Structures are given as C-alpha cells and as structure tokens.
Amino acid sequence: MAKGLIGALAAGLVVLGTAAAAQETTVSHGLSLFGDLKYPPDFQHFSYVNPAAPKGGQVLLEAIGTFDTLNPWVIKGTAAAGSGLIYDSLMVASQDEASSEYGQVAETVEVAADLSWVAFNLRPEARWHDGQPLTAADVVFTLERLKSEGRPLYRYYYANVSEAVAEGPHRVRFNFTGPPNRELPNIIGQLPVLPRHYWEGREFNATTLDVPLGSGPYRIAEVKPGRSISYERVADYWGRDIPVNRGRYNYDHIRFEYYRDRTVSLEAFKTGSLDFRSENSAKVWATQYDFPAIRKGQVIKEALPDNNPAGMQAFVFNTRRAKFQDPRVRQALGYAFDFEWSNVNLFYGQYTRTESFFANSELAARELPDAAELSVLEPLRGQVPDEVFTTVYAAPRTDGRGGLRQNLRQARRLLSEAGWVVRDGKLVNEAGGESLDFEILVAQPDMERVVAPMVQNLKRLGVTATLRVVDTSQYVNRVRAFEFDMIVSGWGQTLSPGNEQREFWGTAAADRPGSRNLVGIKDPAIDKLIDGVIYAEDRAQLLAATRALDRVLLWNHFVIPQFHVDKDRIAYWNRFGRPDPLPRFSIGFADIWWIDPARDAALQGRLGRR
User: Fold this and answer.
1) Which terminus of the chain is more solvent-facing, meaning fewer CB atoms within 10 Å of its CB: N or C?
2) Does this model's pTM top 0.85?
C-alpha cells in the first residue's frame, strides 16, 4: 500500500489466508485519502451535528425548470430534485474532513495492501422501505446495472472496477484492474445502493414517474410532475441511530417547488413561499436583499466562508467545431472578455478572476513548476504548449474602465497568425472565406448581462457572436448532444481529484453524449496527465500531477475563465436552528439544520402557510 494512503484506518492488519493468496488487509470503520481519520471506531456522531436536534416540520426549497422522471441514474429525462434522499450509500463523507468516509450501509471496510480490491461488511440491520433486507446481492446489482445501463459517466467512473462479488449475504468485494489506484476504495464507498428485487423486471434505462423503492432517511410522498415533489422522513428508518446519521435528517417533510427561473423564485422566497436560498448572482445579492422581512429580522442574510475548491466557471469552447480547433483563435477571443470592467459594473466588486481549473485550493498551478511537477511534464515536452514550462498562466487584464484597445490588438495579432483577416468589417478565414460567427448558448437569463458586453467587444474584432437563451430542458438536451458553439458552464472540483478527470478531459469521453468533456478534448498528453492524477501514490504526487494537468489545460485555452467567489451567500427565514460552528466543507442545510420550535412559532401567524 502507498504510504499515507489508506493509512490510519484505525484498526490492525488482518492476514487473509485464502487460496487466492494470503495478503495483509487493513480493516476499519472508515477510509481516508490523506491517511488520517478524525473519528475513532467508537464515535457516536459527527462533531458538527446536534444529536439532540428536534425532529419535525416542513421545509420548502426551490428547483428551477421542470422534471419528468424519478430515475436519476440514467441519461434519459430530467430527474426530480432531491432524488438521492431516498437512498443510502455504502459510506458517508465527513463534512469537516477532506476526502474521508465512514460506514453507512457498510459497518466496516477492508482494503488490500496492494489496492487490488476492497470489501465491505454490511450492517445486517439494513432494510429497504418495504422491510426486505438490504444485502450484498443488491450492491452487486447496483454496480452492474449502473455500468451497463446507467448514465455514461458511470462506465468511466467505475472503469477500473472489474467486478463485484457477493461473498456472503452481508459481504461484498470489488476487484480492481490497472495500476494501484488510491481513490478507488473511496469511490466505491460512495456507491448508492439500489434494490435488486424492485428493479428486476422493470426497465432501468427509462424515464418513470413510478415512485421507486429506497432505503434512506426519506421516501417520496407526493409527486406533481413538473411542479413539485415532496419527501417525508421515514419514522422507522433502519439507520436513524447509526453514528453517521445521528443528529441528521431532522425535517419531517422536504418539498421542492419548481419555478421557471431564479428571478421568479426570489420573489417567492420574499413572500415566505420558500425557506432557503443560495444566491449565485452578485447583482441580485447586492440589490435585491433589502426587503421588509430582512429589515424585521424575519429573514437572515449571511455570507459564509467557502473552503472548497472553486473549480472553473467559464465560456466553454466546443472544439468539435472547426473554427475553434486552433488554440490561437481560442486565446484571441479570450481578450474580448473584460473581467475587471464586469466586476466593477456588474458584480459590485464581489468576484475574483479565475485562473485555474482548481481555483481556491492548493491544487492550482500558481507558480512555475517545481522539480516534482517537472518530472511529470518533461516526458511530454513537445506534446504540450511550451508556455507550460516557462510562464505562469494569467488571464488578460484591463484597467476596469472599458479600455480594451491593447487587448484587442493582441487578439488581432493572434487571429492574423491563425489565418483570419478582416474584410468589410467581418473576420474571415483567408483559406476558406468562412466568417467567424458563433452562438453563445445559456439557460440562465441573468447571464445575459455577463455575455452581452463580450458580444460587443467581439464585434470590434469582426466576430459575430449571438447570445441565445433557452429553457433548462432544451439547454440540457443540446449540451448532452454537444449541439453548441460556446456555452457558459463549469467543472466543480474536490480537494482530492481522481477518476472524474477522465470524464472531464479524457479522450474516451469526448464523443460520448452526456459526458462532461464539454470541450471535446482528445489529447494523448492530457490522457497521460489524467492517469498521473488517478494513480498518484501519495499527496505530494497528487499535487504535482494535478498542477501539471491544470497548467496544460490552461495553456491550451480550452475555455475563457470567468470568476469565482470564496463565500457561500445564503438567506433563510428565521425559523431554523443549526450547529455552531458549521462544518468546514459544507453549509449542511438539508441534513444537519433543524426547525427551531420557538423561532418557527414566531413566524407562524405572519406567513399564514404553516
């Protein structure tokens, strides 16, 4: 086993004397990518919960767009919000540790010293909502069905899981292929478990509004297709008193109400028709949160520290389009986005320019490569941009007053080098006469104010960019099929990246409908860098591999980076209690807050809906 990898799993080494080969195996109640677990084997609850939190009440949350299926595991349809609430997983991530998990359905986990397999010993008391036992056969069924008929991403996420074997009613083993992969045990620990006896005989790869069977803390109580979905807490939930669940899932009812867009849902929130809102618009946060209920203290407005990686939000090029295949063209168009002007005039100075795919974390490549990173990059010299070795990536800058002249000159120089010239006010390709026209597809109306100034700046280059705003369903379908020129999208990241990077940037995902390789990257060098991330043997190697990947992605100009904020901007009606302090890596509203009876009573008469 790699040093520090699954390290302090808080239990001894067990020698398995099977015919297959005796080998040392680590047995524990949890897994950690960093080698340490905060909570010991006999922990009673997470430190960030209130184990005596009162249960009860209903919480009303927003969802945008519509839904047409209760099956979130397949690519067809748009799944209802909160679908995962009805399922348990093998293990549960801790919200105050980076990349640590503790047993939920699994009571203990065993990891082979050479990382060739992981086994989970299931809790015998685990039950489905119909009373039938949850067994190893359900776990095997889940993996097989997700890989064969689930969303395409599962086939890549579990690509190195060769098989799942039920070694008894309450023990399941997953065998791995390929080089040792430090992340695979944790990935398998996140596996949600589906009921074999429910799905056998049903069409798994289809949309459905039949209420599915689960085993989790909630069950679906009411469905109004496209309008709302309600969940009720399972009173006799089998796992209510196990350590990872104690003090969590405190609401009796959770209902998601669907709205056409977030402008409408904000007005609903102001009237008390919604309980909680996470705000993603700087303008709205600055201008729309001074209403009577806030002034009276009935609604609380807070900006809480966000300690998670910001990832990348950006204008995303579809390099499947011939016009975007030259990196000089992509780089040139990036000079037309004036972040500094936008931050002053549109965002009220709240944002930071994003200059990494792993922004707001130690994974970002913010200095020249050191010796460890050069050992990753040198074998790829000549296959990656030269700037990777000599220059720290920095996005184009302006003075913030709308002066883009120098940037546009640089853009014209790059476009000229790539064979584009201006004729009759339009930028055209000298070789084929094709004009550089494209569509920017968005689903959020409030993105218009971000995109529109860039459209005008592009016009000064002779580029005709058209902004098109579509509804959520059309946007999702077009993006799944890669039917776009440019979109505004992004990629979230964790503190320990791994297999998901194949889904983001890997060649095998580029032509697979529904993948997150939105750019259409097909680059053997990047595939090798992804492998370096996945198969890193310790934290130091992971940092070097991730920074190398970050650097190469940036200097290929696959996107025009936008911005991020290091705060979670939230507002909620003053009827809740919550742990103090909150966990480092989550707000935890859905699962660790509770309705405070005294505060709730104070609002009852005023809102007239409870």
Assistant:
1) C
2) no
